[in-house]
Write a structure and sequence with these properties.
Layout (H helix, E strand, L loop, with lengths): L5 H26 L4 H17 L3 H20 L5 H13 L5 H27 L11 H14 L7 H13 L6
Length: about 180
């Protein structure tokens, strides 16, 4: 007799990962970084899920491969260090057989994010900022984001990574 139902335990791990990923996207939007603890929590939840499925070794292999590829991208200056850790942690969260699908989904979401930022930058070039000081947190974040978009600074790629996880875990794979 088990103390906790495996289905319930899987749900607990997914909720923990979802809360951590929500923290990742909000933190990345606000300050363009992903806290290490968030990646550790996501990785732990992913390992817990894969342990329930008896897939720890394949999950670690997939996570290591994603980390190596993302590390290469970081060394070339293409992505940030927090994104490397979050990508590897999220690779542990998805089933080992879905890691390539996760990477593809993340790349597609990243392309969509880039298109949104490009379109927004064209719109914002035509606007003039009001000199008043923003009052609410959302307004302050939006003002900071507008400045980043105008200066063509980095994207909050944690959004694309999280979208890749959601697409991989929730959207059914065609033909399978």
């Amino acid at each position: 007799m088990t103390l906790i139902d495996p289905v319930a335990l899987r749900s607990i791990f997914l909720v923990i990962a979802a809360v951590a990923l929500l923290k990742a996207v909000t933190h990345d939007l606000a300050v363009r970084s992903v806290p290490n603890l968030v990646s550790l929590i996501v990785a732990g939840a992913g390992l817990g899920i894969n342990a329930l499925d008896g897939q720890v070794i394949p999950a670690l292999t997939g996570g290591a491969m994603v980390f190596a590829g993302a590390w290469y991208c970081w060394r070339r200056g293409w992505i940030g260090g927090g994104d490397v850790k979050l990508l590897a942690a999220c690779a542990l969260l998805v089933p080992p057989t879905a890691v390539l699908r996760f990477i593809l989904s993340t790349a597609i979401a990243g392309g969509g994010l880039a298109l949104i930022y490009l379109a927004t930058s064209k719109i914002l070039r035509k606007q003039v900022d009001a000199p008043s000081r923003p009052k609410s947190l959302i307004t302050r974040v939006w003002c900071a984001e507008r400045r980043r978009i105008r200066r063509q600074m980095s994207l909050p790629y944690a959004w694309a990574i999280c979208a890749g996880v959601v697409l991989t875990l929730i959207v059914p794979f065609p033909g399978g």
